Amino acid sequence: xxxxxxxxxxxxxxxxxxxxxxxxxxxxxxxxxxxxxxxxxxxxxxxxxxxxxxxxxxxxxxxxxxxxxxxxxxxxxxxxxxxxxxxxxxxxxxxxxxxxxxxxxxxxxxxxxxxxxxxxxxxxxxxxxxxxxxxxxxxxxxxxxxxxxxxxxxxxxxxxxxxxxxxxxxxxxxxxxxxxxxxxxxxxxxxxxxxxxxxxxxxxxxxxxxxxxxxxxxxxxxxxxxxxxxxxxxxxxxxxxxxxxxxxxxxxxxxxxxxxxxxxxxxxxxxxxxxxxxxxxxxxxxxxxxxxxxxxxxxxxxxxxxxxxxxxxxxxxxxxxxxxxxxxxxxxxxxxxxx
Length: 339
Prior knowledge:
Elements: E1 2-6, H1 10-21, E2 25-29, E3 42-46, E4 49-53, E5 57-59, H2 62-65, E6 72-75, H3 82-90, E7 100-103, H4 110-118, E8 123-128, E9 132-134, E10 138-141, E11 147-150, H5 155-164, E12 172-173, H6 175-187, H7 191-196, H8 202-205, H9 207-226, H10 239-248, H11 251-259, H12 268-272, H13 284-293, H14 299-312, H15 325-338
Parallel strand pairs: 1-2, 1-6, 2-5, 3-10, 6-7, 7-8, 11-12
Antiparallel strand pairs: 3-4, 8-11, 9-10
Helix pairs in contact: 3-4, 6-10, 9-13, 13-14, 14-15
């Protein structure tokens, strides 16, 4: 079976290397720049374990990777890169001849794009809660976390693949529950510390910043409840418990609890590396879009999604937001009057 891992992300490199080690016919398509010279010889680092990978087929041109067509494609790029990849894939063959695909993109929107091209029978998604990062010419992971695959007839196969790649034990969940659980988890201390250029823990220490963070979470809860979504636990992330804490606890108590589990903000990476893109539309933007359709107010998520995207795409200088909460509050006040 021929597998194509598409995306020059640390997760993409890890999956390609581990499945290559498991004797699959694997191609890694790294069609965007890597932070190190591209070779077929690099290292996987997990705790004290160091594994050297050799002989992996690494390509940079999509047409080479798609000739002949693989049986499976795993998209391991950021969400903003998926549309371009799908357009390229769609040009290679008629829909009925295209391969099965798995999306590893965060938030809401990626699975819908797959289904629009390939149909439900060939489209799956998975949420991975383990962190991966580049370390020189190596992929480093903490070893904590795991994955959940959307419910689908092909979920056992996909779960087996990801398990062989060392990502944990297979678990499944309904696609809607999985998507919104992923969104709610990733909203925490993400867009705000990214925009303001502050440490994530500072979100919970400053009452004015915390008020916006709290409103962002309440907007998301309102959408999830109106859609009647059953949130599910993700490996290492008790998402339903997080949601109930937001619903029930006084804000001051909630801030102290959430601060204990703070993580590096994922949205910051694209701004730091000036990729020209952002996944904010799939997180805060997903909340704002769903709220609009439900006629619910979501001005905080609306402004955060637009602001992070505007900075990423160069329409506004990131420095305008640095430690400038007044500017952000003004944008939200204006949005509150019109949304």
